[in-house]
Amino acid sequence: MRFLQKLIVAFVALPGRILAEFVCSNSHLSVHVYHESPTTVHYQGKDDLLYSPTAYTLIHSAHEAVLVDAPTLLADGASLAKWIAATAPGKKLKYIYITHAHADHFNSFPALTAMFPEAKVVTTQGVIEHMPAQYEGAIWDYFWKGLFPSIEKANLSVVEKLPSHGKFWIENSKFEFRAVSVGEGDTVDSTVLYVPHLDLVIGGDVVYGHCYQYIAENPTAKLRAQWKRSIDEIAMLRPKIVIPSHMQPQEGFGVKHLKETTGYIEEWEVMLESAETWEDLEGMAKKRWPDRVGTFILRYTAQSFFNATF
Ligand SMILES: *[C@@H]1O[C@H](CO)[C@@H](O)[C@H](O)[C@H]1NC(C)=O
Ligand SMILES: [Zn+2]
After folding, report:
1. What is the value of pTM for the model shown?
2. For residue 2, what pLDDT band results from cuts at 50, 70 and 90?
3. Cα of 131 to ligand 2 centre, how many Å?
4. CATH of 4-207+243-253, one of 3.60.15.10, 3.10.350.10, 3.90.930.1, 3.40.50.300
5. Domain-by-domain residue ranges, the chain?
6. What is the C-alpha to C-alpha distance for residues 296 and 262, in angstroms, rounded to an integer?
7. 32: which strand partners?
8. d(Cα 79, Cα 87) in Å, to the nearest integer?
């Protein structure tokens, strides 16, 4: 019976297959993640590939809360906002922290600030510098607009820069959050959010769960080595809990995600040596990681190594 109760608390099913999951708590802070389900995308004339599921993290104390990242589409941001109101009722959402400059991690913040007008959207100088590029040229016209025709741009001048030490607090200065600029992840100038009180790291897209990894922005061995060093830097924070952004529900929040992310990059590099076409590369990855999801990310990444995207 107690086991059953625990299960019910741990997995709260919401309409539309989205699962929310309890991560951890101590006497002051609680952590929940909201899993946005994988969605079909329109790519190269077809609608047969899935974008990766994405986890958005909520950390809340007695009166206040912090959200890490926001979904791509405004409608999904609005659903997340409703879930926050239900999960942390009556609490003030004080910050929305953006881990890196990819639209699937920030674009719907206006739907959240509409429901929580006091929330500040914050991130580092590096992330702020790269955000506008998501709305320009082929990245907007072919990638975001192509994949998600209903996507709308957010007003980026609302986003506020954190001081260079990266710290912010809730409940006055009781609980610290620290943006750690690790550098290369699946994109340039990535960060993770460290919560010392919980030995918790929210890994953004520096750390992956069981989803195909986006390596299209790391075409060189040098960049991939930098990504691996970023993972080592996270390990030096000695977290006990690690939440990757792209993960499957119920796979857990352990430090194993660090090694697995590095391992994936290394095995990908071995596959690169023998693959002669993007189809080869995609096939090898599917065979090696049959349980990972995010077939669009795999297709796009494999094609990027053979100049075959869009
Ligand atoms: C964008 O946000 C800024 C800062 O809040 C505001 O001054 C500006 O009017 C907004 N621009 C648009 C087009 O809404
Ligand atoms: Zn992402």
Report:
1. 0.94
2. very low
3. 13
4. 3.60.15.10
5. 4-207+243-253
6. 21
7. 22, 58
8. 12
